[in-house]
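Human: You know discrete backbone vocabularies at least as well as I do. Show me how you would write down a chain together with its backbone fold. No explanation is needed for now; the record alone will do.

Assistant:
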Amino acid sequence: MDGWNKLSSSLGSINFSQAGTKLSKGFNSSVQATKERLGQVAPDEITELPQEYKDLEARVDALRNAHLTFLKITKVYDSETYDYPTQIQESISELSSHIGYNLTSFAASNLKGTNLPAPNAPNPLPPAQHKTLPHALLRSASSASNVLQSATVQGKEDGLGRALALYAQGWEKVALARLEQDAAIREGFLAPWQTTLNTSLAVAMKARQAVRVSRLELDAAKQT
């Protein structure tokens, strides 16, 4: 009974006259737009919008297209892996390590006091590595240098190993600068432009659609 009372109350709050008017206007606008698209309305029967408004529409279109075109490319800076495609293999390996670590940790903490053998607590996972090309070059050069230095006769220095160590130091500075650059691009460019696209330009597009609908309603009313 309460459900019926709520339904009756909801129906009673609806202004059917107003809803019917909106539905009728929406239908007439759709019919008018279809007629214009099919060429069934003479050009002189279509309300001409002011040239100032047309210029404003063109300006909004240009701004929106500029934002979309530029953001389509610069969005790569949202992910630090844009210049290091082989990071996918490293990501899969890291994911496997994380899953194994979590399973072992769960077993070690939950199998204590049971008849089942509990594994030893796993060693902590190494810190996550940045997956950029400069960081990858830094890691590979440093690793290669360590391999050569470890195989060097005691008391002697491997020239190639030393050169690779210096090479790695150079890439360490480049890698740090790369992270700072990407952060500056995201905060100083991508975020503001995306905000403009989602707010100011979105509002302008909605207002433009409202003007179009009003114009269609007016022209439809003229033909009735």
